[in-house]
Amino acid sequence: MDFTELYKHSLNLCKFSPDLKYIATVFENVVSIRDTETFQNKLEFGKTFCFQCIEWSSDSTLLLAANFTSGEIIIRDVNNPSWKKIIKEGPAGLLNVKWNPDGRSVMCFSDFQLRITIWSLMTNKGYCIQDPKYHNKGFCFREESSSFILAERRECKDFIGIYKCDTDVWKLLNVFQVDTIDLDNLELSPNGQYIVVWDKCIWYKVLIYTLDGQCMGNFSIEDEGLGVKSIAWSPSSKLIAIGGYDQKIRLFNNYTWSPIIELLHSNRIKNDQDLKIWKEASEHDLKSERFIVKYDIIEEPVELNSMQPDVKPNPKLGIGSCKFNANGKLLAAHNDNFPNCLWIWDICHLSLLALIIQLKPIKHYHWNPVEVEQLAICCGNEYVYFWCGQYHGTEIIEVPAVNFKVFNINWCSDGNSMIIMDKTKFCVAFTTTNKENSMMSVTSVMSEMSIME
What we know:
The structure is a single chain. By secondary structure, the chain is mainly beta. Helix content is 0%, strand content 52%. The protein is built from no helices and 43 strands. Strands 1, 2, 39, 40, 41, 42 and 43 form a seven-stranded mixed β-sheet that branches. The protein has a six-stranded mixed β-sheet with strand order 29-28-34-33-32-31, with no helix packed on it. A four-stranded antiparallel β-sheet has the order 3-4-5-6, with no helix packed on it. The model is unreliable at 433-453 (pLDDT under 50). One of its GO terms (cellular component) is microtubule organizing center. One of its GO terms (biological process) is microtubule anchoring at mitotic spindle pole body. It holds the Pfam family WD40. This is Anaphase-promoting complex subunit 4 WD40 domain-containing protein.
């Protein structure tokens, strides 16, 4: 891998444009847009307040930057530096802002879940939707039909509203009540045909709806402790993985909408011939006087050490996240009871394919969007870990920078590059590149790496 120089950032605000030509970053009260070919500034602007959010429009020409405290949104055009648009929300406040898929209208979520205001950049007119249940979840877009799906709360009951979301015309297409006690979130299937909704964690209840309000599936478990914690659709929309606080993943199919198997994440792992267990190890090298990190393959059965959860809200237990790879044949899962471990399941054979055991708790993990068997992991140290399939094995890359700890990683949509973030700095790593002018080899020593402002 090749790495760029380090750049400062705030609040992990570093985002590629959808066409990958630009990368936008925030450092305190300054937004910088850089060309990804040369990493030279294309546009830079600032305000007296610090920015808390940035979002690219779908066509990669417009960037919005917002401060929720002041309720102010600034929109700039990459191709026309002199153009700008400022939106100021009134007494209702601002908690979140999103682009609509058209890239020419903006959604502003007010405080106290009072309303959503859609502002058109073409007409400068607004459209209001009342009573959204949340400001940071409970909504999604169906881009094929320009539809907006929203969880709403009216008279202590949960509803789903389906809206037509053109740039200049917004209207309610359908609204229906859902059979939840207290809806926690919703997720649209990749094919845009189904909506899965689930209840708050104290009830284990999952429901599947079509966009016209027909309930296709209703699954619940009585007296089973806490409920649903994470959900993931397969890319084909034929399967949905439901991770619970009970340390199980239940796989549902799109024929019966009922569990076909329960994937267990226990502390005792029997190592059979189809399973490989990769365990990180650290050895001191006498020649270089430094520690060498590697993976060992464990042949015998393994017993994992479970973490005792804290006695407080949102305890660290159960399936905190699960993610399908790009072709839906593999499923990675992180059980918060075992923070150092990552399970990789073979969906075709419904069996455990690999178990990765790290020395430190896993912070983030992401599948490569193109290379379907490549998974990247970070653990808050100076390394990025890769699992590259059962036959290609694993790889550990050290970020060649001084005092740089990897706390977050994000793949670019082409699968050839990723943003690697420290708490205050970031760099971009390229797996295949010819950017000799801006890249540095992973084998080089970055002992005097400059910090660009």
